[in-house]
């Protein structure tokens, strides 16, 4: 079982490397590039949506979000581009390192999500907060 998990992790890393090559290919349409960049940024960012120190849930986002995003991104890349990207990744295997740009992109995405959440919940939260203060 441990060997299967290691093989799956190697395959996931190889696919992420191929996706990084495909995202740079000019034949890749912009929606596929955008999804690929988000997936790569999330996978390589040192900040997770759910921190890893939280038992079970900390690794759940890595076990679900990265493969799901990778699956979607690979479906959006044209097959010819993906085939060439996989061949390039096999010819020049390199380690995908943590990315400062990935961190910056993910911080921007988290800030945007917080802003949208505040805009959506803001009036209700502000009213609750005002009512809470008037009771005290």
Can you describe this structure?
The structure is a single chain. The chain is mostly helical. 79% of the residues lie in helices and 0% in strands. The protein has helices at 2-24, 30-44, 57-76, 79-91, 100-135. Helix 1 (2-24) crosses helix 2. The radius of gyration is 19 Å and the shape is elongated.
Concise overview:
Helix content is 79%, strand content 0%.
How is the secondary structure organized here?
Layout (H helix, E strand, L loop, with lengths): L1 H23 L5 H15 L12 H20 L2 H13 L8 H36 L1
Helix pairs in contact: 1-2, 1-3, 1-4, 2-3, 2-5
Structural features:
136 residues; mainly alpha; 79% helix
| Share of helix, binned | over 70%
Please report the distance between the alpha carbons of the first and last residues.
58 Å
The whole-number mean of residue pLDDT values reads 82
Instruction: Tell me about the largest β-sheet.
Output: none
């Amino acid at each position: 079982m441990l060997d299967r998990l290691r093989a799956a992790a190697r395959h996931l890393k190889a696919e992420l490397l191929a996706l990084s090559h495909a995202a740079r290919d000019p034949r890749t349409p912009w929606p596929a590039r955008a999804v690929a960049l988000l997936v790569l940024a999330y996978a390589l960012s040192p900040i997770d949506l759910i921190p890893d120190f939280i038992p079970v849930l900390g690794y759940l986002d890595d076990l679900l979000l990265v493969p799901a995003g990778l699956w979607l991104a690979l479906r959006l890349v044209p097959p010819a581009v993906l085939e060439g990207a996989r061949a390039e990744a096999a010819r020049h295997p390199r380690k995908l390192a943590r990315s400062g740009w990935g961190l910056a992109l993910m911080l921007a995405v988290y800030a945007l999500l917080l802003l949208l959440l505040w805009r959506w919940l803001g009036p209700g939260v502000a009213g609750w907060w005002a009512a809470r203060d008037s009771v005290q």
